[in-house]
Amino acid sequence: MRKFSIILLIGIFVTVITACSANSDQAAENSSGNGEISGDLTVFGWGGGEELQSRKEATKIFKKLYPKVKVHEVWLPADNIDVKLDAALAAGNAGDVIMMSPDWKGLRSKWFEDLNPYIEKDQLDLEALLTQGVDGGYVDADGKREGMPTTASDFMIAYNKDIFDKAGLPYPTNDWTWDDFSATAKQVSSGEGANRVYGIVSHWILQSFAPFIYGGMPYNEDWSKQTLDDPNTLKGYQLFGDLVNAKAMPDDAAAKSMPMDQMFAAGRAAMYPLGVFEASTIAKNVGSNFQWGIVMPPKDPSGKTVNIKFQTGFAMNKDSKNKEAAWAYIKTVSLNKEVGDLYSKVNLPAAKESADSTFANLKIEGTDISMVDFVTGLQDAITFPWGGSIAKAGDLYEQTWQQVTVQGKSAEEAAKAYTSQIQSALDSIHQSK
Amino acid sequence: MEAYYKSKKTSGRIKVSLSYVILTIIAVVFIFPFIWMLSTAFKIPSEAYTLPPKIIPETFTWDNFIQGWQYADFTRYTWNTLIVTGLATIGTVLSASFVAYGFARFKSRYSGLLFTVVLATMMLPSQVTLVPTYLLFTKLGWLDTLMPLIVPSFFGGGAFNIFLLRQFFKTIPKDLDEAAYIDGANAFQIYYKILLPAIKPALITVGLMSITFHWNDYMSPLIYLNSDQNFTLAIGLQFFQNSFGSSQIQMLMAVSLITVIPVLILFFIGQRYFIQGITMTGIKG
After folding, report:
1. What are the residue ranges of helices labelled H in A292-410?
2. What is the average per-residue pLDDT within A287-316?
């Protein structure tokens, strides 16, 4: 018995020592894994307000995890950043890690590294790690992954309850259609000249909604054919042209007279499409001036809610001299829980763990509106359709939009002037690939 | 006769009063954005957006100035802006006047062509020259330094300034140059000792325009600077705005108010010369 006890004790001792040694090996591996990555790393990003602050804080977390990596941070304002980045990419000094969106210089550009091999090497199960809906658009049709998501948001329509009450109209509900939207925008508009109260602000996102709201599309799925002249697409553009004509949406001069967020916060517009990224700013600006609520964007004729999603992620510069550190940074800001918790304050974080816990419990500051309400439709939302390689064609779609909403032309007339140019722009994407 | 003079005097008074009323209305229209900035800078967020806008804040706060200034390193941004504006203005005034003197006083077979080429640079969109100049400054190792914002000013000072000063030089009689020449002055002495003092209003005009331009310039610092420690005020102010266009307007207005004051003071000091400089430019072509 004594012998058995001694053997048992020795056995337990050996097991404990082995287990401890295994744990410390694992810890050492992790630690040395992080510690082994060293060298210089330049991170290039942009933004402002709380959003930028969260990006800077996320970099601090990375520095803590990878102390041997010397991080050079380039954080610039968002205004005209594409001009700067174009020059920096052309000169080859844009940094190792570059902030990007799937809609902006994302897909099919020559600048970014394919991240698939890195994901495979680390055996990352992205489906389990990423929040549903945030990852769309980062993978090219040929399978190349050009970025990893960090945050995302889609749009809700904020509405001024006081203006609706004054007009004697019920508040919009999540099952409204674009015809309802148009009728509502016209009915809540009132006043003249400088005192005009508009139905909806002239928001830059409306141009992206336009082709889809009656079930149309701006181009087909593989970007080989423009579908601007599709009757449903045209109907979408025409709706907004009609709103401007009916003075339910500000014309060019009125829109330029006041920033759109001020127009809503000042009670000069009844509705305002906004993402979670600006909801707290709007909440602060509105304060107790009036009561407001949010509703999902209207549905198309098939009953599907039309929404556009905005995603921000990071890509690796193909010319990076320190790809190991660049990948470590991208992985950290995309998947790390602590970083995800930081991002929760401004957007839906890519890290599922944070989205399901921290983000799920947050409310828009000063309101009873839950942050989650803003991203309910994210999974089905359309990725912002004008960026990346589409940008050149996107400029032409923008011009078409302006013909309708600024120049007062019919959607059909505007489309006639632009379809062939847009088709050429789409053709050039495939030729240059 | 007395009645005639009396009625003429009255009609003159009416005209003057009327023009003052019209000018006051125009002045109010133009000054309103500044008043709004001043008023918003002292408001709490929700008050900044009340309709109709209230000029006098109900809740008066200094927090926008304190929080706004602490929001980023605005003290450093101000210092950087002062360096860039000061040196670039010296460069602009010196080099533009030197080039203009050449075009105004020295004739050659190609001076007309050269002057046309200089003026043609005004038509060149900045996008065309952006990448080459960016590459040039990268090769020179000047990226993320204040050099690209200062040094180019010492090489011509801009086509418009050259044009403005050349026109001014042309209003000064050549007899002055000749007299100085007879007295033994060389071409540089004539430029430096005789002509520069004579075109003081134009130089102040160019200087004021250069100060305003460099103080407010956003694009060049955005393109050439990367580090927070090198940023200028124009860059710093943009950080109040997020990537989707919404901004913290009260803080933005508070810091903008602080940053606009030096330019405003300089303009008021130099406005007499500024007006003189502009109005006298076109006298002789």
Report:
1. 323-335, 337-343, 352-356, 391-405
2. 92
Chains A & B: contacts with CB separation below 8 Å = 119
Question: Would you say B247 and B240 are in contact if contact means Cβ atoms under 8 Å apart?
Answer: yes
* Per-residue pLDDT of chain B in tens (285 residues, 90 and over written 9): 677 777 777 888 888 999 999 999 999 888 888 888 899 899 887 777 776 777 888 888 899 999 899 888 999 999 999 999 999 999 999 999 999 999 999 988 898 999 999 999 888 887 788 888 999 999 999 999 999 999 999 998 889 999 999 998 998 898 888 999 999 999 999 999 999 988 888 899 899 999 999 999 999 999 999 999 999 999 999 988 776 666 778 888 999 999 988 888 888 887 777 776 666 554 444
**Mutate which: A59, A284, A292, A395, vs B, most B CBs within 10 A:** A284
CB atoms within 10 A of CB A67: 11
The β-bridge partners of B134 are: none
Q: Are the Cβ atoms of A259 and B241 closer than 8 angstroms? A: no
Q: What is the dihedral of CA B57, B60, B62, B68, to 10 degrees?
A: -40
First to last CA, chain A: 78
Statement: residue A13 has pLDDT above 50: no
DSSP-derived secondary structure for A58-89: HHHHHHHH-TTEEEEEEEE-STTHHHHHHHHH
Confidence class for position A191, pLDDT limits 50, 70, 90: very high
Asked whether the beta carbons of B231 and B220 are under 8 A apart, the reply is no
Cα A90 → chain centroid: 25
Tokens representing A356 are 């399901």
User: What is the structure's pLDDT at B222?
Assistant: 94
Residues of B with CB under 8 A from a CB of A: 44-51, 53, 127, 130-131, 134-135, 138, 143, 218-219, 222-223, 226-228, 235, 238-249
* Own/partner long-range contacts of A255-260 (Cβ < 8 Å, ≥24 apart): A255/A201, A255/A202, A259/B245, A259/B247, A260/A201, A260/A202, A260/A203, A260/B245
Residue A131 structure tokens? 């929040």
Confidence of residue A433 (pLDDT cuts 50, 70, 90): low
Q: Kindly tell me the burial class for residue A285, based on how many C-beta atoms sit within 10 Å of its own C-beta (0-12, 13-18, 19 or more).
A: buried
Contact status, residue A71 vs residue A41, Cβ threshold 8 Å:
yes
With beta carbons less than 8 A apart as the criterion, state whether B204 and B185 touch. Answer: no
Distance CA A81, CA A262 (A): 24
DSSP state of A145: B
* Cross-chain Cβ contact A48/B51 below 8 Å: no
Q: With contact defined as beta carbons under 8 Å apart, do A55 and A45 qualify? A: yes
Q: Is the pLDDT of residue A231 over 50?
A: yes
Stated as kind and residue range, the H or E segment containing A200 is strand A198-200
**3-state DSSP assignment of residue A47:** coil
Q: Which tokens belong to B69?
A: 């200034």
Provide the H-helix boundaries in A144-251: 161-167, 178-188, 206-209, 231-245
- Asked if B47 and A78 come within 8 Å (Cβ–Cβ), the reply is no
